Amino acid sequence: xxxxxxxxxxxxxxxxxxxxxxxxxxxxxxxxxxxxxxxxxxxxxxxxxxxxxxxxxxxxxxxxxxxxxxxxxxxxxxxxxxxxxxxxxxxxxxxxxxxxxxxxxxxxxxxxxxxxxxxxxxxxxxxxxxxxxxxxxxxxxxxxxxxxxxxxxxxxxxxxxxxxxxxxxxxxxxxxxxxxxxxxxxxxxxxxxxxxxxxxxxxxxxxxxxxxxxxxxxxxxxxxxxxxxxxxxxxxxxxxxxxxxxxxxxxxxxxxxxxxxxxxxxxxxxxxxxxxxxxxxxxxxxxxxxxxxxxxxxxxxxxxxxxxxxxxxxxxxxxxxxxxxxxxxxxxxxxxxxxxxxxxxxxxxxxxxxxxxxxxxxxxxxxxxxxxxxxxxxxxxxxxxxxxxxxxxxxxx
Length: 397
Known about the structure:
Blueprint: E1 2-14, H1 29-46, E2 50-56, H2 59-80, H3 93-97, E3 106-110, E4 125-130, E5 139-153, E6 159-179, E7 182-190, H4 217-247, E8 252-257, H5 265-271, H6 296-308, E9 311-313, H7 314-322, E10 330-332, E11 335-337, E12 340-345, E13 357-365, H8 378-382, E14 388-395
Parallel strand pairs: 1-2, 7-8
Antiparallel strand pairs: 1-14, 2-4, 3-4, 5-6, 6-7, 8-12, 9-12, 10-11, 13-14
């Protein structure tokens, strides 16, 4: 039996000191030192085998954080782990107290194709850290080989234009990770945020909707619509990649910042449909009369196809197992919700008798979260505005 942990960590704007990442936003050397130490302490506490990071501007800054986590961890090991001369050194408790450094671990970084590199106009990427290394070279998905064209129609059935997506707002990082005797495909994503997308007229310095002294509620609502449409389109691109891996017979784990709750449309696009209770109750797609329904055999086949392509939230499995719902990874305006997820394919579902592994526990590191209503408050600026989540897994040999 092989045990491992997999985690998601939105770090909130990791970049070196005195570098303007967004307009008029940067860290002093002291602020950066605090952020690096805070992140390293979080990594030390998590001690995860596989981590998907979001909002990484610079790979070097992330490597510095990992090195600092190892320094903290090895110092802790010297203090709490007994030497080989101690007869009690093999007690189970010391396996929990010990930290495993990331020496020799593999790090894949996906820079953002939208990053200009210019001060104030930077865009973050994502990364995956794996103690198990990778099988092959991790793949970056952002510029699509063919633009995604989504045809629309109105209620009369006529065409109503289309939406085109040639590039994702942030990269999706796909890596195959060898764990025990298995290889698991891991996707790390950071979908478009809920911040409105406003269009700046030609020759103007800014979009009219961004001028809050001339508040335009309808225009700002249209900006939210654009963001939601982009987020759902990006979710579909990710879904297409997931299904391709499942069709190839590969176990899949999807993690990251979805910028939506579990039951949002974008999240349900990623996870796939919930199977209907009994398709034998439904009229066939090609029904010729009122009683032309799917057969019992077709019901079994349809249900199996839906389940085979469906992902399940690790958080949801934890809630089902623990009989409580206490998980949140973000807070804003008094609303506490989970925007970060780890999704598991049917290979890890407890109802699947042929599963290759199980989730034993689900950890949430969210004690640092404040209400989040004032993003410029000192602590909110430096610590992450997301909680970290981690699934504790074991594989069957």
